[in-house]
Design brief:
The protein is α/β, with parallel strands linked by helices and about 280 residues long. Helix content is about 40%, strand content about 20%. It has ten helices and ten strands. Helix 2 runs parallel beside helix 3 and helix 6 packs across helix 7.
């Protein structure tokens, strides 16, 4: 968005973890930044509190109750695209068992778990779904993710829908090692980003998040004095979409996914939005 617009200065503070980020927020506020995007559900409380303390605009994730003239909330309604991932998984599984591995149970992960399960069952009710939670807020626990994924692969799952943050790399490692040691191939469906450049041998797809539309709207709203609302990313807006699967995925599978996408947009399929 910064490269596209060119009308603001951007600074990215990375790898902050899930501890107290107040010193970083305070430093940015003191240096004149007037919008702080707190890009993690783990920051959903501390950032709105800082906005009220400092008077700086803050965009939080998954905290609609905190919305005020200084706080905007970004909601990722990814359940519809996760439904498409479920259709893809049910079409592609050879074992009849698929798995879901999560690094916690925040609303975004829950939305996608439910959507994925509904997509699987709508496509093939006979497919078994395994569900594993690595731990409470285990977003960076790659070792725990590897163990949880290994247990699902051992139970027959050949497609893993993983929601992990850094823990995702443990899931990928488990699948790679399984494929090296087995005659049966397992696949990984990721979330948020696109890891195909590095893990194309195991990545079947990803529920991609594209925040650019929301960020543009937030910046425009601050300029217009209209900031302080819930900003929603969903299938219709293009804020969430499914990463194209590998080229060797059968055309009939791609057609099934596309038919489901069109049915959702037409209102013929309603995907449950369950965050708890």
């Amino acid at each position: 968005v910064q490269q596209q617009r060119g009308d603001f200065e951007l600074e990215i503070a990375e790898n902050l973890g899930y501890g107290d980020i107040t010193p970083v927020l305070r430093d940015m506020a003191e240096r004149g930044f007037d919008l702080l995007i707190c890009h993690a559900s783990g920051y959903q409380t501390i950032c709105p509190e800082f906005a009220q303390e400092s008077g700086v605009h803050v965009a939080a994730i998954e905290n609609p109750d905190a919305v005020s003239n200084l706080v905007g909330d970004i909601e990722t309604q990814a359940q519809e695209v996760a439904y498409l991932a479920g259709v893809l998984a049910a079409e592609m599984t050879q074992s009849g068992t698929v798995g879901v591995v999560v690094s916690g149970e925040p609303p975004t992960w829950n939305f996608m778990t439910v959507g994925f399960a509904e997509g699987v069952k709508a496509t093939d009710p006979a497919v078994e779904i395994l569900y594993g939670v690595i731990g409470e807020a285990a977003y960076e626990d790659a070792a725990g993710a590897k163990r949880t994924t290994e247990s699902q692969l051992a139970a027959g799952a050949d497609i893993i829908f993983g929601m992990g943050d850094g823990a995702s790399f443990g899931m990928i490692q488990a699948i790679e090692e399984h494929n090296d040691a087995s005659d049966t191939k397992a696949w990984f469906i990721d979330v948020i980003g696109d890891k195909s450049a590095d893990y194309g041998d195991v990545l079947l797809s990803s529920v991609l998040f594209d925040y650019s539309g929301v960020y543009n709207q937030i910046i425009d709203d601050i300029a217009a004095g209209d900031f302080g609302k819930v900003y929603t990313m969903d299938l219709a807006s293009g804020g969430v979409r499914l990463l194209d699967p590998p080229a060797d995925v059968p055309q009939e599978t791609l057609d099934a996914v596309e038919q489901a996408r069109e049915a959702i947009l037409a209102g013929e399929i309603t995907v449950s939005a369950i965050g708890d």
